Amino acid sequence: MSKRAAMVTDDGGGPFAALPPDLHHHLRPFLTDLTEEVVRAIRTEIPEYARPADDTYMQGVHRGVDHALRGFLERMAKPESDWGPVQETYQRIGRGEAEEGRSLDSFQSALRLGARVTWRRVNALVDADLLPRNVLGAFGEALFLHLDEMAAATTAGYTEARLHAAGELQQRRMRLVDLLTADPPASPEAIADLAHSARWPVPKTLAVIAIDYGPPPPGPAGQAARPLPPVGGPAAGGPAAHPSPSTGESAARPSSPTRGPGPQHAAPGRGPGTPSPPPTRGPSTQPSPPSRGPGVQPGPGTPSPGVPRGPSTQPSSPSRGPLVPPSPPARGPIVPPEFLARFDVQPAVLVVPDPEGPGRARAVAGALQGLRAAMGPTVSLQEGARSLRWASEALELVRRGVLPDAEMVRCQDHLATLLLLRDDALVDAMAERRLRPLEQVRPPQRERLAETLLSWLSAGHNASEVAVRLAVHPQTVRYRMRQLDDLFGAELQDPVAQFEMQLALRALQLRRGARGPGAG
User: Fold this and answer.
1) What is the Cα gyration radius of the chain?
2) Cα-flanking dihedrals φ and ψ of residue 184, to 5°?
3) Between residues 184 and 266, which one has the greater pLDDT?
4) In principle, which of 51, 258, 346, 395 could form an S-S bond with 210, CB 3.0–4.6 Å?
5) Dist. CA 436–CA 154, nearest whole Å
6) What is the model's pLDDT at position 219?
7) What letter would DSSP give residue 438?
């Protein structure tokens, strides 16, 4: 092309419109040589693309360079042409880079390198008087505009693919949480397959953490708490008592031969916010996993279907105030990549692989900052449901005020409490069976006698030790024991009855502690 053939104009249509209208015709003969030069430069300067032994790969690089240069010439020929198809091409390239697991750094470097080589070649043509020098300004502006738009389209496709892949990966990891906590357990093969697709190395052991995350679902307005049985048994009243001349305490007056009201049976319904025994699945005796979704717990008289995963709706006593979940962090917990998490359920679930491993305690503490949580026992991969079940029950006891409201409660530190309060209906039934004689005295005396009985059973029937524990005179202990002997008779000497009395008294003591002093 001679200088006479090229007169640069600018009609306001951008850098491509400012180019000579026939410039693309005079550049097209150099397209093949320019493509080869760009490919050689890319292979030499960008190691990621240096695969001389891979013909298929290098052919793909060659096609990409050729397509980029031809697209540039087409825009020169038709400045007002639709950029959409070319944009889609580079978005597709960006998606491909993401799917190959590469970063965009190498591709962006290749684009810049191709632009530099093209710029050098055009300058050489100008120096050889094959192009007019006054095209360089508009040509350079058009070239680098094209480069920027290619880079932007590639980045958009890359980002879209990465977000899609991250979403799919997150979905797989959430499904893996469900699989690891399923009951009956999934097969090792199924766990291994899903773990591989979720990019999660399969550990030998795991522990599941239940977390209070987000506000609890609202319960029925003004719902009353299920009354806890008195320490001595379900009945609240009793016959009058007379003071003892020796101790000043009220002595028990036996009631009529009917001994108060008829037998009471534990109702099938459970109060809100109390853990219930999970149902069995088919002939299996293994409990089923806790419910996944949030929901209001069943009210009095409604059978509970299983261990509640939703927050408790049982109001706390006025003496302690309600235990509400702490507000979640604004941006959510920072969970290490080796952990699995579901924060779309309440309580949220965190699966910790090899929880006894080095640095695990610190990583867990970092993930749970400001959140109330309970950690289940360390179990095999086939027992994740048990770890989750224990963690959920412990978290419920924290909500009720039975367990300390620490940042994280470990089930291993509270096994006896978990055992005793696994089922409130069983506790009530045990109290009804073994502690019913205490119904014959009024509540203040009943509590003193129950406290003395528990201390006597715990101290191996040593009255002096009981006196020290209760900070009373030994004579007071002996007097109370005579009252208890009158009430319980031969049962007080029966080892089985003694054991069950101690269990019931300890469970009721824990439950009363959750409601605060003076609750009854």
Assistant:
1) 39
2) -65, 155
3) 184
4) 395
5) 78
6) 41
7) G
